[in-house]
Amino acid sequence: MTIGPGVIEPRFASAISHRLLSEPMFPPMSEGFPFQIATVAVALPSGCRPPDNALRHRIATGFGESRSEAATKALAEGAERYALQFRHDMPAWFSPLITVGGPVEDAPAHDLALGAPGAKGAVTSVGAASGDSLESAMLRAVLEQLEHLHFERLEQGIPELDDPEPQQLEDVKSISTWLEGQLRRLDLRLGVFAEGYAMAAARCSDLDGGRATAGSAAGCEAGQALRHAAEEAVFHWRNMVALENRGIDVRDLTGADQAHFRRYRGASRASLWPEPVKIAQRLAVLPLPDVGALMSVLAQQTGRRARIFDMTFPPLGVFTAKCVVG
Hints:
Helices cover 33% and strands 20% of the residues. With 326 residues, the chain is an alpha+beta fold. The protein folds into three domains: 10-84, 2-Layer Sandwich (Double Stranded RNA Binding Domain), CATH 3.30.160; 93-145 and 289-325, no CATH class; 161-265, Double Stranded RNA Binding Domain (2-Layer Sandwich).
């Protein structure tokens, strides 16, 4: 089902008219589903290798309380994905905007771009983000790297996140209430850090903990991070249900899709999250984060160099940045 008129923001109209992005689509969901989901198909530029999936092109997803919000987020992610894909007119080298924790060095396009011919190793979209300005895209890109760092630690059993406070649970109340009717539970973890960001993780599972799916988010507001993490976890669950309904053969899945499905069905062991860390004093208001300061945190926490690059493709109407560790 496509969206109605007036929902697409004008800045994305050109990308759609030039067939760089599709119009947002809304997958059918069950009655009472607690949020809207939109998807956008991302065109494959000439010379770019297609992703290793059945569709042979990349899909962007957005969540929101309204169709307009979900569509805008899906289009923004779609613009980010397109900008990251290898193109014949892409510069051969990129100079970092900021470097922390190591030497300042340019990076070749095949180390940053998705689907670059002859690229060594798997280049992913981790650490990439779009924004209304280059500064906001850079901030979101660093937060994405911090999100993955904290979530990996959580999965490894490293305790650094707490339970959300009762008032913060209001942001996910509609989701948890809906899940109760599905005999599913929602486990949440939250960290609020002095550098000005919040990290949230969510796990959606059966009441006994089985068939678990997870989501995570980092941002400048704790409640929004919690809700996005919960939306992502529930969305992944519905994807697993759709695969089951289609009677999928796990051997037909590749990469992360196969790993997620195997974990969901219990073929590989899901990690146990550590007990929440009880934080004696919480920040009432998060300070405004600084990109350079967050880059320093990332470099210190990983013990590796952190660099950030401008990957903007102007015809898309948004700025895109990518933060790389190593």
